[in-house]
Amino acid sequence: MTPVLWGATLGAVLAAGVLLVATRVRAMRRPQLAVRVLPYVRDLPQVGALPTPTGSGLLKPTLRAAADTVERVLGGATSVRRRLERANIDKTVHEFRVEQVLWGIVGFAAAAAFGVLRMLGGSSSVAGSLLLCGIAFVVGVLARDSHLTGQVRARERRIIAEFPTVAELLALAVAAGESPVLALDRVVRRSGGELSVDLSRVLADIRTGEPVGAAFDRLAAATGLPLVARFAQGVAIAVERGTPLADVLHAQAADVREASRRELIETAARKEVFMMVPVVFLVLPITVLFAFWPGVVGLSLTTP
To answer: How far is 180 from 158, CA to CA, in rounded Å?
Structure first.
């Protein structure tokens, strides 16, 4: 295609988009029947949420169909639901699939723009651009899934970092004579980390009438961290059997600190070679340069 045809095509697409936007804006300005009737029926129970006057309603059926297609192709709804719970993201699997589709659309749009620019330069074909757009869409969908895994790992790292402090606070509160529920309430009110969010859910379940052991057992089953699972199981067993809870919490906090120290040492041992890179390629050459440069300058001055 010649640049003139490309310009005409892009202009037609732009005009169609502007026409669609103008039509939708004109329709949005009309007051909806529900909005006009609502002031007179406020005392009646609301069956559902009122429709919002936005343009997203036009794309919702398409996004839902695309999300269902992604779910059928990828599967793993149980794994996604589990990771959403572990990342403390209040979304359903279907909403996550919609986000994956949106990420794929962004990748598709970026690849399409790149393909159009290459076509205008005459260095690309339609088939290659379509293949690139399809690959970009798949990469965007998979990137959202990978980002969810990264969110889970980041949250779990924060939980591990704050676990010893929370366990020590619980142990101190229990040792001071408070019951496990009161100690848990005190720690939740005084702290504000990710582990405190999980403990606040446990406290809410206990206040609704669920037994303490059952609430902590549920936390042990829901978490993806072995140390938090052991902590919850230890608290549940201590409450059920009447064993000293403060000693259990102190021991678990000490175990977590020791495990963190051991992991730090192992990480440093694995990265020992990378730690030598700045020494060998930066510090050592500069040291050699400072040592030999004055001699080289002196030789150049004394040489006739």
So the answer is: 24
Q: How far apart are CA 75 and CA 89, in angstroms?
A: 19
* Separation of alpha carbons 96 and 18, rounded Å: 30
Out of 43-57, 181-195, 224-238, least confident range: 43-57
The conformation of residue 48, written as its DSSP 8-state character, comes to S
Token pair of 43 as six digits? 């005392």
pLDDT at residue 50 above 60?
A: no
Please say whether the beta carbons of 63 and 95 come within 8 A.
Answer: no
Task: Give the integer Cα–Cα distance in Å for 201 and 194.
Answer: 11
User: From CA 248, how far away is CA 61, in angstroms rounded?
Assistant: 53
Q: Rounded CA gap, 304 and 289, in Å?
A: 24
Residue 299, Cα to own-chain centre: how many angstroms?
62
pLDDT tens, residue by residue, 110-130? 988 888 888 777 776 778 888
- Candidate from 62-71, 205-214, 242-251 with smallest mean pLDDT: 242-251
Instruction: Tell me the C-alpha distance between 234 and 217, whole Å.
Output: 9
How many residues are there in the chain?
A: 304
Q: What is the pLDDT of residue 139?
A: 92
